[in-house]
Inverse folding.
């Protein structure tokens, strides 16, 4: 099963870990798309709850992750992309 299908804000790290364990690095682009769609939905929602969820996601993205060096570069690129989307969302929401 594709680990990205299980994604929600609370299990971001678990989905990344599963992608690494399965060696399905091609799923990272799909995860990136899914996270950015979630960020976009939070911006459209515009509620205090959406702001809270965005802050939770930002904390998860900024946490230090323990991955093998081989996947570190890919995870870093994913993190940079999502961080940019979060920054744009924060500009709109806050």
């Amino acid at each position: 099963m594709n680990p990205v299908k299980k994604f929600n804000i609370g299990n971001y790290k678990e989905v990344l870990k599963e992608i690494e364990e399965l060696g399905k690095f091609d799923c990272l682009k799909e995860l990136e798309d899914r996270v950015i769609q979630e960020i976009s939905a939070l911006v459209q929602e515009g509620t205090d709850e959406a702001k809270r969820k965005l802050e939770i996601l930002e904390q998860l993205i900024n946490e230090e992750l323990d991955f093998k060096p081989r996947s570190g570069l890919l995870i870093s690129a994913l993190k940079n992309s999502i961080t940019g989307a979060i920054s744009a969302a924060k500009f709109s929401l806050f």
Observations:
- The radius of gyration is 13 Å.
- The mean pLDDT is 90.
- Residues 13 and 63 are 9 Å apart (CA to CA).
- Helices lie at 12-22, 27-45, 48-62, 69-93.
